[in-house]
Structures are given as structure tokens and as C-alpha cells.
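Protein 1 of 2
SEQ + STRUCT:
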Amino acid sequence: MNKNFARTKYKIQFPFFLNDSLEILFEKLNFNFENENFKITILTKPLLIGIANVKLNLYSKYASPLTTYYGIEILKKSKAEMSIDEATKLLKSFILEFNQATNMIIEISELHDFDSDYYGYEEEEEEEENLENPSSTINISELPNYSEAIEFYLKAQSTSDDEIKFLYYYKIIEYFSPKVAKLKAYEVLVKKLDSIKYKNTKSSDLDTIIDISESLRKSKSDSELAKTVLSTGIDIIDLFDLLPENTRKLICKNIGINSNTVDYNLSIDKIESISQSLGKILYSTRNSIVHAKSNYTPDSFECKTEDLSQMNTFLYKATYQVLKWNDNLPKHSK
């Protein structure tokens, strides 16, 4: 038995507590995942967790072994043994998609030894609510491929501190930046190699290849990584209005456009310039948070403190787009 999960050979249940928002949600919504290999469901009365509570003696008259927790159940359809590592990765991807669908976060908990002092309940009967017949159902058949970036994303949802939230989102950008930089360099390099395939190689051709390598090195530097990811992994036009108003004005001023003209009619160069300017703002904001105030000199590109919450609203959507961009890459590019 384990306090973090309850399992059989091919089925694992992870416990979590309801908060008021989740309780209201689950009165209305049933959220499930199923494909040819796995089925994931949210259970109001997870039997395996209830059995674990009994065997570990983690229950009382104030905390029923079966109804204290909800559970996320992962079932492996092949009836083959499922490793905890495999189940945990599926769990994190499932919680991410649940968050996208509901804007709420599920936090997996340990089984606890509860008593009356913990709950502070009075000994009285409470009317049992009906959570068995939600009015709507969301069924999904795809989950994002697990990566460490999903961990960062879920941690961002679990904190109310805007600076910490921002840094977790930025870590997602950092995580994918080497891949984006390499893919861009490979694309340019392949074109160059194709152009010299049937002719004598000149020194200028070799110089170009060296320049491509230098460009890769530069795009992987701290100051360039946000620009690199934003220009490739997100639809900046679609998300532009989610940026804080001050940030939108600064970007438009930097590249010489009117904010009312930010749409898909902009030239490719202007759209790229938006991503480049925003990348600089994110980098400066990250530095202003990470470095001690006494060791940091503002450069006027930082996101204002009062705008950080709205910037996180933008990054919530933008970093999810980056996760989906990575999922949609062909296998040879992952």
C-alpha cells in the first residue's frame, strides 16, 4: 500500500481533494480520456483508494475511507502491468488538458490520517449532494506528450504568486528553445547544402555554413531564446490582445505600427518583429525578477508589476500553444 496512489496490476487511482470550485464543477461536468490503450476517468467514490484507506487505517467517523477523496483512475486496456512512471506521466498530461478545458487545476494529494481536529466538523449529519449525474460530458481521445515542460505548466497553475507563475512559464520557453533553434538552423542548412550539391564548393559557401552555425549559437543564448520560441511556437496575432495594454503599446511603438492594425494582414516581417520585441520584454522581465534588485539595472522593457497578472494570462495560452506545437512536430523532429 502507498499513500500516493492505490493500484492493481493494470489500474491505478490517484487521490485528490475537492475545493469548492471543483465541487460545483463536478456537479455539472464529467471529464474523461480514452484511446485504444488507456482510459482515464474522475471518480467520486474511488474504490481502490477506499480500500487503501482501510488497510492503512487512515479514516475515522469524520473521514469516510470511500468518500473523503475523489480519484483519477488510469486503466490500461491491454491488462498488462502498468508502471507508476507511465501512469504518472499520463496523469500529468490529463490534468493539463482538464485545466485547459475548465481553467481549474487538480492537485494530487497523499492519503492522510484525519481526525476531528483536522476537519473541525461538528458531529451532525450533512445532506449528501448528488454528483453522480453531471449535466455535460467532455470526452477527449488525445493527450499531450509528457515532458518536463508539463510539470512547469502545472506548477504555474498551482501558485497564486505572479512572479513565480511567470518564472514557471518562462522555464517552458527555456525548455523548448534549444529544439526550436536547432530546427531553424537545420532548415537553413538543408537549403544551403541543396544549393551547392551539384556545383563546386566555394569559400563563400563554407562561410555561409559557418554563419548558420553561429546563428544557432546566438539563438540559444539567454537573451535570444524567448524570441526564438515565440516566433516559431505561437500564433502571436491570435494572442496579441491578451497582452497587457502597456506591453501592446510598447511593442507597437518599437516596431512602428498602430495597435489597431495588428492582424493577419501584417507582413511576415512585422509579425516576426512583434515576436522579437515581446521576447525582449519577457527576457527583461525575467531578469528583473530573478536578479536581486541591487544587481539589476532596468532597461525600460520590463513588464510593469501591475501588469504581471495579465502577462501571465497571455503566457497561460502562449505556452500551451508551444506544448501543442511540439506535439504536432513530425517524429523525426522531436
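Protein 2 of 2
SEQ + STRUCT:
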Amino acid sequence: MSGLQSGFAMAAASGGLPGLQTEEACQFAGSILDSAAGAVHQELTTHADKLSSAADRYQEMDEQLGQRLRKFSQ
């Protein structure tokens, strides 16, 4: 998400609008887009970390339960 540089593109668009209020609006929108992309990136990173942790926990439990079941079948 943060690699999209949508905020940079929006701010760069303001260069063609010198002296107009639209220039300032484009710069403001660019900073908002950058902030939003950063927040989404952080949330996705946190979510991915939690999913990875849950997958690790699942594999651990699967191994433990598999070992218990093997004891009963022997």
C-alpha cells in the first residue's frame, strides 16, 4: 500500500496549477492519501502478523494432538 505513492502523484499534480487554490487542495489531498496509505499498510502488517501467529499456533496444536492420537493407536 505504501508503495503506491498516490499521495505523491496527487501532490505532483499541483505543480501544473501554480497560484490556484486547486494547487493547495491537491497538496492537501496528497498528504491525506499518504497518511491513509500508511495507516492501511500498518493495519495490514499487523493483521498479517496475527495470521502468521495463529497459523504457527495451529500447527503446534496439530502436532501435539497428532502425537496424542498416535499413542492411542499403538
